[in-house]
Amino acid sequence: MTLPDKMQAMVLTGHGGLDMYHWHEDWPVPAPGPMQAVIRVTACGLNNTDVNTRSGWYSKSVEGATTGDTKVVDGAEDPAWGGSPISFPRIQGADAVGIVEAVGAGTDPGLVGRRVMVEGWVRDWDDPMNMDKAGYFGSEVDGGFAQYTRSDVRNLAVVESSLNDAELATFSCSYTTAEGMLSRANVGAGDTVLIPGASGGVGGALVQLAKRRGARVIAMASPAKHAEVATLGPDMILPRSPDDLRAALGDEKVTVVADIVGGPYWPKLIDVLERGGRYTCSGAIAGPMVDLDLRTLYLRDLTFTGSTVTPPQVFRDMVSYIERGEIRPVLAATYPLRDLAVAQQAFIGKTHTGNIVVLP
Fold first, then answer.
1. Cα-based distances in Å from 335 to 139, 166, 170, 174, 323
2. Helix H segments across the chain?
3. Of 30, 85, 190, 222, which is most buried with the most CB atoms under 10 A?
4. Position 318 confidence tier, pLDDT thresholds 50, 70, 90
5. Which of 62-66, 74-78, 163-167 has the highest mean pLDDT?
6. Can you give the pLDDT at residue 273?
7. What is 77-90 written as a DSSP string?
8. Which residues, 6+ apart, have CB-to-CB distance to 22 below 8 Å?
């Protein structure tokens, strides 16, 4: 199939506020190289990585919550997720879904015309388990906030599902992040998992995926969102930040805290972990700087794990869960791609439950 020369794209021109996004009607359409495919994007989900990369929040010079404001300071050397600068201009958008329109040398031409999801982790496929060589779709390479995008075919999964494209675009980043966290913490049927921020994309994914593993799940969310969070199937729902978390838990024995929130409430989460419990983290939307009494860590034999780069099998497993109907999307809203800034502001506002998606 002949690709067009030009496309519409939302292009990020540097670290900063929402004004760093610029709309283009004539951005060049990428061409497929060896082992690559060009996808016509039909939907692309939003995630915290896009916000944090744009604003420079990953820089160690930033100590506050994820708000999407201009944060990067002059001379900061680590404003991107991996600690190395990214190049601009850049098209963000990790959660792309679309139709394969063209393929390069060495690929299966049967991919053309198939609906696919894109895995976020860009790997050295000669050394795919090497975390130091990993990049991220929409960060180190252009992503899905455009009419067309390009990906290594080994990062694509054909999806056989009755879900629509916008619903499929809610999964990739949030659910692979959540599954990676639960895998690092070895969550299983004997666990009780406490999940702060359960109304968000990753939080909701954690609820569903922990339940899928047979764990007992306690979700934390603002009361206005409890009815929606309840549809995900947690065994108990607590307010977002009870004054006395131990009392709110009653007789529950928390063996795992799966956290993407952090912030000033963090010590209370650690204090309710049972002896030998595990804490797993892949975010800090309420702030990365926390207080830890090391006596709590070592006297209670706790294990802390960070989780960012996931093994390739995590994405494949997640797609299989979708196809078998074991997890479901939570689509909060869709916006035209041209209104990405409005959509991202709504995403940052956190008044929604689930994920927000833009449509080219």
1. 22, 10, 13, 19, 26
2. 48-55, 165-168, 172-184, 201-212, 226-230, 245-249, 266-271, 294-299, 312-323, 340-349
3. 30
4. very high
5. 163-167
6. 98
7. S--STTSSPPPSSB
8. 10, 11, 12, 13
Tell me the one-letter amino acid at 2: T
Q: What's the whole-number average pLDDT of the chain?
A: 95
pTM for the model stands at 0.95
Residue 256: both structure tokens together: 């795992």
Query: Is there a contact between 257 and 297 (Cβ–Cβ < 8 Å)?
Result: no
Range list of H helices, 23-82: 48-55
Task: Cite the residue boundaries of each domain of the chain with CATH code 3.90.180.10.
Answer: 6-170+329-359
- pLDDT tens profile 199-210: 999 999 999 999
Q: Does domain 174-306 have CATH number 3.40.50.720?
A: yes
Q: Report helix, strand or coil for 223.
A: helix
CA distances, 252 to each of 249, 255, 277 (Å) = 5, 9, 13
The C-alpha atoms of residue 108 and residue 112 are separated, in whole angstroms, by 8
Ramachandran category for residue 16: left, alpha or beta (phi over 0 → left; psi -120 to 50 → alpha)? left
Q: Is the pLDDT of residue 334 over 60?
A: yes
pLDDT of residue 65: 77
Using alpha carbons only, what angle is made at residue 332 by residues 101 and 136, rounded to the nearest 5 degrees? Answer: 50
Angle at 225 between CA 219 and CA 228, to 5 degrees: 80
Residue 177 exposure: Cα atoms within 13 Å on the Cβ side: 25
> At which residue do the structure tokens 């420079």 appear?
56
The ranges of the chain annotated as CATH 3.40.50.720 are 174-306
Return the CATH number of the domain spanning residue range 6-170+329-359.
Answer: 3.90.180.10
* Angle of CA points 170, 152, 47, to nearest 5°: 25
In this structure, what DSSP letter does residue 2 have? P
pLDDT at 8 (0 to 100): 98
